């Protein structure tokens, strides 16, 4: 099997997106439109007729080319409608044309030399009552708390409303650049791949919000945000419960995206989500390239 390295300008986006759409491990963040936003200079490894594809999130710093996992893109790696075994993964890794890289391979790309990372996923193909039986006592308690406070969950139709709320909330973790977030949300909404949700207080104030990424088989908890009132009111518990209720008995999964932080992992497990790991691969990552 011949694996070819393609520069950004040489990638056939029609064939690329067709491969992603048919892949048994399809992820929305692997479509060309998504990669164009989060990694504008991305390149690729492909086999003949794009039967197997692997995006290469290319960057350059101090004239040094390297690959690094883009923001808001938990997993990439190899995609195909065909079986992806460990030997094939190894063949693709050998063809990476750059000396320095840090890449997250998807859950179907097992590689013995990669580091396993936790990711919590909930299967939605059961009745809601059956799924809710696996909620933790703490999760049930927080959902009930939010309901008693008369919080309401509604779709946010304005990307600007979400954007303003996101950047107004104080954070002790990374912040997505305003221009990138705005561009991704607008593009995702035009592609029918992003839906925005808000949780409103009894006084109709926005106190929590979620940028939900979706495909026919997967809902991804891409970017949640709560202000102080939202956290105190357990708003996000109510929002996730509503999404589970609306999508129960569908051939979909709810992807919580992470986490290594025990408190956050406990929050995800509280809805019955199970660890479905992905794999991180690193090679020659000097300190001057760590800053993405």
CATH topology of the largest domain: Aminopeptidase
- What class do helices, strands and sheet pairing give? alpha+beta
> How do the strands line up in the largest sheet?
9-10-11-12-13-8-14
Q: Largest sheet at a glance?
A: 7 strands, mixed
Query: What is the total domain count?
Result: 2
CATH class wording of the largest domain: Alpha Beta
End-to-end span in angstroms?
33 Å
**Percent range of helical residues:** 25-40%
Strand content: 25-35%
CATH homologous superfamily label of the largest domain: Gcn5-related N-acetyltransferase (GNAT)
Quickly count the helices. 11
Task: List the secondary-structure elements in sequence, H or E.
Answer: EHHEEEEHEEEHHEHHEEEHHEHEEH
Shape: globular
Instruction: Give the beta-strand count.
Output: 15
- From the alpha carbons, calculate the radius of gyration and give it in angstroms: 20 Å
- Any guess at the CATH architecture of the largest domain? 3-Layer(aba) Sandwich
Which parts are unreliable, with pLDDT below 50 for 5 consecutive residues or more?
none
Mean pLDDT: 92
Blueprint (SSEs and pairs):
Elements: E1 3-6, H1 13-22, H2 32-38, E2 43-47, E3 53-56, E4 58-61, E5 64-68, H3 86-94, E6 101-105, E7 115-117, E8 120-123, H4 128-132, H5 137-148, E9 152-156, H6 159-168, H7 178-190, E10 194-200, E11 206-215, E12 218-226, H8 228-232, H9 235-247, E13 253-255, H10 262-269, E14 274-275, E15 278-283, H11 287-290
Parallel strand pairs: 5-6, 12-13
Antiparallel strand pairs: 1-2, 2-3, 4-5, 6-15, 7-15, 8-13, 8-14, 9-10, 10-11, 11-12
Helix pairs in contact: 2-7, 5-9, 6-7
